[in-house]
Design goal:
Layout (H helix, E strand, L loop, with lengths): L2 E5 L3 E2 L3 E9 L8 E8 L9 E2 L1 E2 L8 E9 L6 E11 L8 E8 L2 E17 L2 E14 L9 E8 L3 E6 L5 E5 L6 E2 L5 E10 L3 E3 L8 E5 L1
Parallel strand pairs: 2-9, 10-17
Antiparallel strand pairs: 1-3, 3-7, 4-5, 4-8, 6-7, 8-9, 10-11, 11-14, 11-15, 12-13, 12-16, 16-18
Length: about 220
C-alpha cells in the first residue's frame, strides 16, 4: 500500500469521512487487486473486515485506488485506529497500513478561498481604483459556515483592519475605499489577508486554509 488517507480528519461527531487507499501489487507479484478491507480498533481475520470499493468501479489492475464512506454516528469521542489492506488475485492478503481517525465534539473551520476583484474609474488619462475580497469559510466537510466573524487586513494601495460576518453561503465581502487619482500607467496592487476567524463553539484551523492571503493588480 502506498497511500492511506481519511478526509476530513479530525471529524465532527455524527458526520462521515472518506477513507481512501492505494493498494499496490506492482512490486510484489503484479497480480490484479481483487479486494480491500478495513478494520476499526483491532485487526480481525482476513476477509472479515469492512470492504472498500474500487474508485474506478472495477478491480482490474495491480494498482487500485479504493475508498469507503465511514459514518461515525454513534461513535464515542476520541481516537480510532483504522487498519487497511488488500488482496490480490493469487489469494494473498497484503500487510496492513493504519491511520488514526479523530472524532471531536468541536467543529473546525478554515478559509476555502479569497476571490479578488477590482474596479477602475477613469478621468482622461488618470485613474482611481478600489478592490473587493470575497472570503469563503467552510467546515471540515467543505460545507459553508454561517455567522463566523472574519478579521482581515488590507495592504498595498489600501491599509487597515476590517471585520465582518459570513452569510448563509459562508461568504463575507470586504471592499476598499477608492484610491487617490493616479496616472493611467501606474499599477495599483491590493492585498487582503485573513488574520483570524471566530465563532462560538468552533475552532479556526489556519493550517487547513486553502488561501490566507491574495492580491490583485489594477
Amino acid at each position: 500500500m502506498t497511500e492511506l488517507t481519511a478526509e476530513p480528519n479530525p471529524i465532527y461527531e455524527g458526520n462521515s469521512t472518506t477513507l481512501r487507499a492505494v493498494i499496490d501489487d506492482s512490486n510484489t507479484g503484479w497480480s490484479t487487486i481483487i479486494a480491500a478491507e478495513y478494520f476499526v480498533g483491532s485487526i480481525g481475520e482476513n476477509g472479515t473486515g469492512i470492504p472498500l470499493s474500487p474508485l474506478d468501479g472495477l478491480f482490474d489492475s495491480p494498482v487500485e485506488t479504493v475508498y469507503a464512506e465511514v459514518n461515525v454516528t454513534g461513535w464515542s469521542l476520541g481516537n480510532y485506529t483504522i487498519y487497511v489492506h488488500g488482496r490480490d488475485a493469487a489469494g494473498y492478503w497484503g500487510n496492513f497500513s493504519s491511520l488514526v481517525l479523530v472524532i471531536s465534539d468541536t467543529q473546525n473551520m478554515h478559509v476555502k478561498s479569497i476571490d479578488m476583484s477590482g474596479e477602475i474609474d477613469w478621468w482622461f488619462i488618470f485613474k482611481r481604483t478600489r478592490a473587493t475580497a470575497v472570503v469563503t469559510v467552510v467546515d471540515q466537510n467543505g460545507s459553508p459556515v454561517e455567522g463566523a466573524k472574519v478579521y482581515g487586513s488590507w495592504s498595498g494601495m489600501a491599509s487597515g483592519s476590517v471585520e465582518g460576518f459570513t452569510d448563509e453561503n459562508g461568504q463575507v465581502v470586504f471592499t476598499t475605499d477608492w484610491s487617490y487619482w493616479d496616472w493611467w500607467y501606474v499599477d495599483h496592487t491590493y492585498t487582503f489577508t485573513v488574520t483570524n476567524i471566530e465563532l462560538e463553539g468552533w475552532n479556526y484551523t489556519p493550517e487547513e486554509n486553502e488561501e490566507t492571503s491574495d492580491s490583485i493588480t489594477l
